[in-house]
Specification:
17 helices; single chain; 66% helix; alpha/beta; 2 domains; D-Maltodextrin-Binding Protein, domain 2
């Protein structure tokens, strides 16, 4: 027992004493949060600039409409769209387009818009700018021009557009999630991002510590340190010590992340305008997150221990990691389907397959918590699988750590497992 504790302590301190451990506590959630929240934040917070837009109105009536409907203002009070009308002459039209294009290249103009004859019957306007990426501006112009054209068509038939919009105004459904604790307003976007965030934390913790275990075993094999270690501790004690030590380190890291989230999460969510996400992190979600971090860690580190024991280099370990990564990534690939049909029979069945359980169950819990009977069934199945994989890992580990050279074949692995 003393030898086991020594190995656990060694593996734990080797991780938590490094600067990378504490950097990971802060950076891991920040980076994952950045991927999910920054695009929408930038769309709201990015500095808007005045758009200098020249309009060539061949139709003869559109410019006046645009000048009145594009009345948006910037935070400093300036007009968002600075329009200028360009006189139209059919004989010199092409030369005028070249002159306007040159103004864009010289920075004197941001864009110019050509309103064609027959716009009322479907002739498309032409928008010219130096960049093709200003989707927001183009969509706004499309909407305003469409409204003006539709209003003109309706006016010819004696219908007022404003009255028609009132009649045709749609209905938006407010989404409310029902649980045993009552009902609460929610949104698909917020729930999906939150569940994806938790799954990514779980995925990164299990994968990074599992790979660290495999690389550690390979390094000790190649440097012959393992021969010294096995003279003081049994292979089983060595394996369990490594798994428990790294497991304690991963839980410490997740716990520190949770503490930072508790202290800083609310202000950060208010800053990005997503306060409604806080209600998603209820006790059921948080408790099960830690449960599946622990279960997922021991399941996958058992597999990584086997990979480390039968490999002779980091490259060999890396080559055999792909199936494990895909098993954990699959729930994220089908995330939208799981969100739509979280309690479908095939989703329930797949979530009880132990290699998919941690990530898939976390997504199901976030969208529509399954009954506790299914949760307890998933715990039991994972524990039994961990015991089986741990037994298999211990059998292979005790022989593999002392084997060098070529990677063993499947019949050789079977013989290793049968050794007494």
């Amino acid at each position: 027992m003393r030898n086991l504790w020594v190995v656990i302590k060694k593996e734990y301190l080797e991780i938590v004493k490094t600067k990378g451990f504490f950097i990971g506590v802060v950076l891991a959630p920040l980076i994952m949060g950045a991927f999910m929240f920054i695009p929408s934040l930038l769309a709201r917070k990015i500095k808007q600039e005045q758009l200098k837009l020249a309009v060539v109105d061949q139709a003869g009536w559109m410019y006046a409409k645009l000048d009145s409907v594009l009345a948006d203002t910037l935070p400093d009070g300036k007009k968002a769209y600075l329009l200028s009308s360009i006189d139209y002459d059919s004989k010199t039209f092409e030369e005028e387009k070249k002159r306007l294009a040159q103004k864009i290249l010289d920075g004197k103009l941001d864009a110019f818009l050509v309103i064609p004859f027959g716009i009322e019957t479907g002739a498309p306007p032409q928008y010219y700018s130096k960049t093709a990426g200003n989707i927001i501006v183009r969509e706004r112009l499309e909407n305003r021009i469409s409204d003006a054209v539709v209003a003109r068509r309706l006016a010819e038939r004696g219908v007022v557009l404003a009255d028609l919009k009132k009649v045709l105004r749609g209905v938006e459904i407010e989404s409310n999630q029902v649980s045993e604790k009552g009902t609460a307003k929610t949104s698909f976007f917020s729930v999906f991002l939150s569940s994806f965030f938790l799954v990514m934390i779980l995925f990164s913790m299990v994968l990074s510590y599992g790979q660290h275990l495999a690389r550690s075993i390979v390094e000790e094999k190649n440097t012959r340190i393992v021969e010294v270690l096995t003279s003081s501790a049994t292979p089983f004690q060595l394996l369990m010590g490594k798994m428990l030590g790294l497991g304690a380190a991963s839980l410490s890291q997740v716990g520190l992340m949770a503490l930072l989230g508790f202290l800083l999460g609310a202000p950060a969510l208010r800053w990005v305008g997503m306060e409604n996400v806080q209600g998603i992190f209820n006790s059921t979600v948080v408790i099960n997150f830690f449960v599946y971090v622990v279960l997922g860690y021991f399941l996958y580190t058992s597999i990584f221990a086997i990979l480390g024991a039968i490999s002779n280099s980091d490259q060999e370990v890396q080559n055999m990691t792909a199936p494990i990564v895909w098993a954990m990534v699959l729930p994220m690939v089908i995330g939208f389907v799981v969100a739509e049909k979280s309690n479908a029979d095939w989703v329930t069945t797949l979530s009880l397959v132990p290699f998919f359980t941690p990530t898939l169950m976390m997504m199901r819990i976030s969208f529509s918590p399954p009954p506790w009977s299914q949760l307890f069934a998933s715990y039991a199945i994972m524990i039994l699988t961990i015991m089986a994989m741990g037994w298999l890992a211990a059998k292979i580990f005790r022989v593999g750590i002392l084997m060098y050279g070529k990677r063993p074949t499947l019949p050789e692995l079977v013989r290793w497992v049968r050794y007494k």
